[in-house]
Amino acid sequence: MVTWGGSYAEIIQSVIVDPFTSDTGIPMSLVSGPDLAKAKAQVTTGNLEWDLFDGSGGTLLNAANEGLFEELDTSIIDTSNLVARATPHCMPFLIYAGGIAYDRARTDNPAQTFAQLWDESNHPGRIGLRTRVSETLELALLADGVDPANLYPLDVERAFASLEKVKSRVAKWIDQTPQTISLLTSGEIDYSYTYNGRVATAQKEGLSVAFATDQSLLLTQYYSVLKGSKKRDEAMQFIEFACRPEIQANLANAYSSVPVRPGVLETLSEEVRANLPDPANPATVLVKEEFWADKFTDLDRQFKEWLLT
């Protein structure tokens, strides 16, 4: 399975992969760096290096539209009883928050919203943003004052204009997710757009990072099976296992994620629930994968070209 690196991969290994192998006897190996272009090349040539793909909703829906993934086997996987919606090819297994992280030891008056992050006079500092167009356009519009309730459809022209305002302060455009924490803790940036689970793990390691809770993007992580996988059935079994209530509870405890199965959240401790994103917060925005499904390729190209200017 191709997944994300760093502490995230370690948690997926210990919470899902190892118990799955112990339970079923099916061995699994993880590699880092989900890349849809590589996945497409593998499917096109028939030379699959990966069986399972761990990715975010918008990019996965776009890939599914291009025929990159197998349909979920509903005789194995229950796709009906979920907090986040499954698609025919993509199964949600983790809900988390993207937002602002900072080092408490170096920041006296940290930005707590995207608009505050853009406000250099009151919240100066070097910023790290992602090289992915999805999430970046959303936060740029929120920083520019767009009402969270009216964020979609995205005003793309306004989003790029907003990014221009802060571009000179972006010290790092970050491609690899683990760097959203390492660049912050090494002092190369003062603010990082990252994920609540990454921050929670860093805090457990004794690092003085914090996650701004006033505003965030709610994101869904999905599993999909590459088209033509010779281990299709085993991959479907893994997805079913990952979404079992007890595994979802363990994942929430380890990564501060919102469980995808109803009723699991209520079983978690108050301490764990206090660190989870609050979907009821009116400043919180659920990223709409449907918006990105047919727009990702063109907007990603536009964003990559903008980064070079």
Show unreliable segments.
none
**What is the domain total for the residues?**
2
The topology string of helices and strands comes to EHEHEHEHEHHEHEHEEHHHEHH
For the secondary structure, the number of strands is: 10
**Mean pLDDT across all amino acids:** 94
| CATH class (first level) name of the largest domain | Alpha Beta
Please bin the fraction of helical residues. Answer: 40-55%
Name given to the CATH architecture of the largest domain: 3-Layer(aba) Sandwich
- Helices, by number, come to 13
Task: Please name the fourth-level CATH homologous superfamily of the largest domain.
Answer: Periplasmic binding protein-like II
Work out the strand percent.
15-25%
Describe the global form: globular
> In terms of structural class, how would the helical and strand content be classed?
alpha/beta
Distance N to C terminus: 35 Å
